[in-house]
Amino acid sequence: MEELKKKSADEMDREIYFSNSIKAGKRIYYVDVKKTRKDEMYLSITESKKIVIGEGDNATVTYDKHKIFLYQEDFKKFLAGLQEAMNFIAKEQGEVAPRAEGDSDLGGEIEINLDF
Fold first, then answer.
1. Which of 1, 12, 22, 66 has a 20 to 30 Å separation from 50 between CA atoms?
2. Residue 62 lies in a domain
3. Which of the 8 DSSP states describes residue 68?
């Protein structure tokens, strides 16, 4: 007889249905789509920053990670708040310093259009 196994929190954390990584200097942002126990999808956004302590052979590399979980019912409010904050920065900063190749210049009004 087969035993039914419940998934541990670690196993559930590994189930990613979609993933996108955004490399930005020393940071990498991971945007993952996961499911709750009720099969509702949500976003898991992780910032991972590489930290090097020491030099040469004695160097120790660690990663500082921070996560937020964003559920579908909050998407519109989150995007509105993010857009407002990004527009504020764009207006206050004026000209943006040159960016690395492939990075976009966010000068001026920023608009995010997503339908839910």
1. 12
2. yes
3. E
Please give the Cα distance from 65 to 48 (Å, whole number). 5
Instruction: Give the single-character DSSP code of 105.
Output: P
What distance in Å separates the CA atoms of residue 69 and residue 46, rounded to the nearest whole number? Answer: 9
Which of 17, 21, 20 minimizes the C-alpha distance to 34? 17
Q: How many structural domains compose the chain?
A: 1
pLDDT grade, residue 2 (50/70/90)? very low
Structural domain boundaries enclosing 76: 15-93
pLDDT 10s digits, 7-59: 555 555 558 999 999 999 889 999 999 999 899 999 999 999 999 999 888 89
Task: Name the helix (H) or strand (E) containing 43.
Answer: strand 41-53
- For residue 76, the model assigns a pLDDT of 96
- CATH for 49: 3.10.450.700
